[in-house]
Amino acid sequence: MPDGGFAEPGRSAGADATTAWCVMAFRAAGVDPGSVRVNGNSPLDFLATQSGSWHSVTDYERTLMAVAAGSGNPSSFGGVDLVAKVQSYQRAGGNIGDAINSNAFGILAYRAAGLAIPPGAVDWHKSRQNGDGGWGNSPGAASNPDMTAASIMALRAAGVSPEDASIQNALAHLHSIQNADGGFSFQPGSSDVSATAWCVQAIVAAGQDPAGAGWSKGGNTPHGFVASMQASDGRFYWMQGADKNPVWTTAYAVCALAGKPYPVGVTYATSPGGQEGAGSGEAAGGEPAPAPGGTGQEPEAPGGDAEETAESPVEEEKAQEPGTAAAAVAESEDEAPAVSKVETAGEKEPDGSAGGTSFLIWLIPVLVAVPLLSLGGWRLYLRYR
């Protein structure tokens, strides 16, 4: 968009949440989000004008992750101290907000900002795990793949070992709900790219290969499902026969295919004794797992850097359009100690149907090569105008 933001088809101006996820996608793909400009405006320039639309804990968590992914300063962005805002939702027991996604994205946001993660946030999250190994939108709610994947990424970001029972049980749950086509679905029925992309990232965060035999069902893998859903113009379909929120869906798919869990740009270091460390940034140590068939190196791109922050598990707020699968329940609180209310996660955007590529002025040129991500070399060949 001319203002530097991203939005779904039919919009004339950038949208806050969509832009934040796109910033993380660029970083995951090895492109400096600050170098992506229209009329001199970058996605971060646009986000800096959006403070008036940040009202919930997940708004602050998502934005913090995007700012960190874009190499900005989360403590002073758009006239807001995003770090202090997220911290203001931390409860006495350490949990960040009272919803599964607010705590998960809170952990991811803390990690993106290089902050120590409260042990209570981890303990709270583990104690809310369902008996089937998954997590739902709120404590005690039925498990779904989106929140289970977000929780795995959050626990790993907090330094929980992939061998910990909480993560092993969560992976077992994902195995139990994986569809025959290799993907996952938030709603009963066909697999969708949004849920599957989050699961791919969670599998990578747990040190496993989402394109490997361990996640193959009849030769179909989660990674393969996401890759198969890319259109010729570079965008990703949300589901077979459904082209909802193509920009948002594409941003999720890029992070998944690049093998970058949230928060983008942060690695999971292992300290002596097998315990996971909480280092931040690339200096933290080894990647959680190489991308399928790859070496664990950052994807290469002409003139690009490598780099997100959580929808924040916060899950941020996952995009949900009527009939789309990527839905999550987000806690929305206008002021820290205020009583929380549950709302649909994710800013709603007008449905975007296929047709035309103007809505991906910058994103599609970067992603046009993603469909052919080679499992043998796992390199993203990026190009952008």
Quick overview:
The chain is built from 12 helices and 2 strands; from the N terminus they run αααααααααααββα.
Number of domains: 1
Which second-level CATH architecture applies?
Answer: Alpha/alpha barrel
User: Helicity range of the residues?
Assistant: 25-40%
Tell me, briefly, the overall form: globular
Task: Tell me, rounded to a whole number, the average pLDDT.
Answer: 76
CATH topology: Glycosyltransferase
- Report the major sheet: 2 strands, antiparallel
Q: In angstroms, what is the radius of gyration?
A: 18 Å
Low-confidence stretches: 269-362, 364-385
Helical segment tally? 12
Write the element-wise H/E pattern from the N-terminal end onward: HHHHHHHHHHHEEH
What is the rounded distance between the termini? Answer: 14 Å
Going across the biggest sheet, name each strand in turn.
1-2
Structural class call reads mainly alpha
Question: So what's the CATH class?
Answer: Mainly Alpha
Number of strands: 2
> Strand portion, in percent?
under 5%
Q: Could you explain how this protein is built, in words?
A:
The protein is mostly helical and 385 residues long. It has a single domain (16-372), classed as Glycosyltransferase (Alpha/alpha barrel). The chain contains 12 helices and 2 strands, in the order αααααααααααββα. It has a two-stranded antiparallel sheet. The radius of gyration is 18 Å and the shape is globular. Mean pLDDT is 76; it is low at 269-362 and 364-385.
